[in-house]
Structure to design on (483 residues):
């Protein structure tokens, strides 16, 4: 992290990507998209317009049938998922898919433990991300008893352990009340200030009004508007 | 895909699957197995007509089968040696035969399954119900068929999510694999339990009960062609068993 504010560097770039779920019916046809660091970007569109699909394509969860995607200049078809995860954090629409362990501490530490990292280092890393997301008091809670919004922040914490330069969040505000949305907005602003680039897929205009920045609108797999607010 | 025999009753198809796979399991004879495989491929083609899809859907299984065949051929030693290093036999005729039998049997089961799969899942469930199998079981089958694709997609999302967190599953030492699997299973089970709870609430609100007596919009009726086919199938199956067990035909190869 630590990019000069005001300079927008291209970080994720998709060139002429095509994608389809069922053969014979192309869903995304020759789409170009470029996401930059230091900027808040929102991608809006109605249900089924292809937001989740594009998000998953950009981090290599789905593979385009043609076209290339680059993250920080690297072709993602040649990167492992772990390598992609260290550059771009992706928050799934449903946080339940991203929570693997029984307690918050274990959730945030198990991958480092599996990799035999030093105990003190693990402890300090876990404390770091918990502080970022204002969840210090939940360190030893059970993950099952967390509220929806807390689960989402925990999933985000897990992603931030990798120190990604860019965050892609798929519908992070569904199921959050006004207060929780404000908490999330504050957290995202802090991360922006630390230099991370953020893209949010959403149809919640109230939420993205907090940030301004770039707004892309899409419909049926096509970008129909690209403007800066 | 519509094929010649597509509108046979699903119970006829179930009977074919049951008869052919029973023969395949009980009669371990390469010639018989080859013949039954030929029959099931032929029937699968007539009923289903989509080989590419079958092969693609079962691609992983074939790799596993092939590995098992190779292992079996190596570890079972009987009959004459075919390949040997010095006096140490690597592949023997008996081992090869056992491997081939296994592969044939598995292929038969997969192809007969595609015959049943040519009916819609609603028909399969109704077929099971009309075979007087308790509705609880039929209902479980229908729920399983309905939710399997969703679980599969969720599972792949979960697997991706854990790898994006920086865990390269292939690089984890063998001893820790079990631990990794337990982490992967947690969200899978949590998701399944959650879905089961929501489903049961949704069913309650619609006053659904697994009553043994139910009326159904879809009623399957066996047509004349089904009866004729079933009679042929019965005679064929009995004939194969009698010829093999009573008359010892075809005889042993090794
Ligand atoms: N696994 C899948 N198999 C087949 N079609 C799919 C699959 N996932 C999504 N689709 C289809 O692709 C289209 C785009 O879906 P996508 O999930 O990307 O939309 P979305 O903009 O994220 O919608 P939402 O606002 O509901 O999250 C939809 O028409 C959907 O039906
Ligand atoms: Mg979506």
């Amino acid at each position: 992290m630590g990019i000069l504010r005001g300079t927008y560097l291209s970080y994720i770039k998709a060139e002429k990507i095509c994608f389809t779920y069922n053969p014979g019916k192309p869903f995304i046809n020759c789409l170009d998209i470029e996401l930059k660091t230091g900027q808040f970007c929102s991608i809006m569109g109605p249900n089924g317009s292809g937001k989740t699909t594009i998000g998953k394509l950009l981090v290599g969860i789905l593979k385009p049938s043609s076209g290339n995607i680059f993250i920080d200049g690297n072709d993602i078809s040649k990167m492992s998922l772990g390598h992609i995860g260290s550059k771009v954090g992706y928050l799934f629409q449903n946080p339940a898919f991203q929570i693997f362990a029984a307690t918050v501490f274990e959730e945030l530490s198990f991958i480092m433990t599996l990799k035999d990292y030093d105990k003190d280092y693990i402890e300090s890393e876990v404390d770091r991300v918990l502080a970022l997301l204002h969840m210090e008091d939940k360190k030893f809670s059970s993950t099952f008893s967390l509220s929806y919004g807390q689960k989402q922040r925990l999933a985000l914490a897990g992603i931030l352990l990798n120190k990604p330069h860019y965050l892609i969040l798929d519908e992070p505000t569904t199921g959050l009340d006004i207060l929780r949305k404000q908490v999330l907005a504050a957290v995202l602003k802090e991360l922006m200030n630390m230099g991370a680039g953020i893209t949010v897929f959403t149809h919640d205009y109230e939420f993205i009004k907090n940030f301004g920045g770039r707004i892309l609108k899409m419909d049926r797999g096509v970008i129909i508007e690209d403007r800066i607010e | 895909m519509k094929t010649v025999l597509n509108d046979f009753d699903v119970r006829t198809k179930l009977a074919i699957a049951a008869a052919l796979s029973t023969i395949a399991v009980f009669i371990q004879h390469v010639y018989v197995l080859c013949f039954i495989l030929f029959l099931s491929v032929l029937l699968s083609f007539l009923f289903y007509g989509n080989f590419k899809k079958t092969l693609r859907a079962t691609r992983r299984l074939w790799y596993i089968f092939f590995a098992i065949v190779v292992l079996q051929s190596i570890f079972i030693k009987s009959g004459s040696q075919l390949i040997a290093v010095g006096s140490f036999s690597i592949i023997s005729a008996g081992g090869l035969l056992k491997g081939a039998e296994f592969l044939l049997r598995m292929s038969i089961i997969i192809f007969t399954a595609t015959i049943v799969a040519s009916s819609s899942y609603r028909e399969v469930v109704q077929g099971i119900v009309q075979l007087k199998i308790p509705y609880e079981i039929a209902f479980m089958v229908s729920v399983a068929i309905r939710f399997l694709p969703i679980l599969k997609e969720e599972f792949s999302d979960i697997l991706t999510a854990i790898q994006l967190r920086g865990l390269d599953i292939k690089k984890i030492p063998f001893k820790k694999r079990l631990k990794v699997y337990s982490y992967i299973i947690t969200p899978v089970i949590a998701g399944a339990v959650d879905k089961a709870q929501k489903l049961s609430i949704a069913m309650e609100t619609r006053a659904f009960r697994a009553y043994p007596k139910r009326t159904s919009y879809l009623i399957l009726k066996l047509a004349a062609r089904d009866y004729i086919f079933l009679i042929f199938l019965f005679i064929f199956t009995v004939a194969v068993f009698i010829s093999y067990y009573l008359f010892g035909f075809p005889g042993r190869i090794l």
About this structure: The interface with chain B takes residues 59, 61, 80-82, 84-86, 89-90, 92, 96-102, 110-111, 114, 144, 158-159, 161-162 of chain A (CB under 8 Å). Residues 1-5 of chain A have pLDDT under 50 and may be disordered.
